[in-house]
From TrEMBL:
One GO-annotated biological process of the protein: fatty acid beta-oxidation
Protein name in UniProt: Atp-binding cassette sub-family d member 4
UniProt keyword annotation of Membrane present: yes
Domain spans labelled ABC transmembrane type-1: 3-132
Organism, as annotated: Tetraselmis sp. GSL018
Claim: Lyase is one of the keywords in the record: no
Gene Ontology cellular component list: peroxisomal membrane
GO MF terms held by the record: ABC-type transporter activity; ATP binding; long-chain fatty acid transmembrane transporter activity
Keywords: ATP-binding, Membrane, Nucleotide-binding, Transmembrane, Transmembrane helix, Transport
Amino acid sequence: MIQAKYCDRRAFYWLSPKVDNPDQRVATDLASWCTTLGELMQKFCAAPLQVVYYSWLTFSYTGAVGLAIAYGFFVVGTALQRLIVSPIARLVFRQEELEGDFRAAHMRLHRSREEIALYRAGRVEEAALDSRL
């Protein structure tokens, strides 16, 4: 599939010259993809069996009440995690967005350094950077 896309419509010819060693990249990415897919499938297939096994084990040691408590604990824990993690994830996203804006402002300063120096606008740029901080 990857090789078919690479050879389709002469993609290998139109590939940007900035991409170095495309053959190595394809081989490395393919190996990484296969390893990750194998690990994911192993976990995906093993998880239901583990749930059934540990449910049976819990039931055999503690009965139906113990199993109900274990599942109740799981449901409550999952609900609490969603309540706590969702707002934190939004805050982390916002922080990364602001950090990106700050880096972009510094890149703009670096890219326009001659004009800024010519107009002696260092203080204005400092204020702009401070507002991003």
